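User: quick one, sequence for these tokens?
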């Protein structure tokens, strides 16, 4: 089980075709900040039917997209 599973489960439960979460919202869901390991672990999200779209360091957001 990944430390990011609560985030993956949240995204899947929301069920939206696309959603944008701020780093602060992600911290609330996980109870911690995302770090460089997020880049390696983001492929785990495919098991939940989603992928990480764009990560914006400027806006401090992550876009999640549902596989079609």
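Assistant:
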């Amino acid at each position: 089980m990944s430390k990011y599973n609560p985030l993956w489960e949240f995204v899947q439960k929301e069920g939206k075709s696309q959603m944008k979460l701020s780093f602060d919202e992600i911290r609330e869901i996980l109870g911690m900040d995302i770090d460089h390991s997020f880049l390696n672990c983001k492929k785990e999200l495919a098991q939940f039917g989603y992928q990480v779209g764009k990560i914006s360091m400027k806006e401090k957001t992550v876009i999640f997209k549902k596989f079609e």
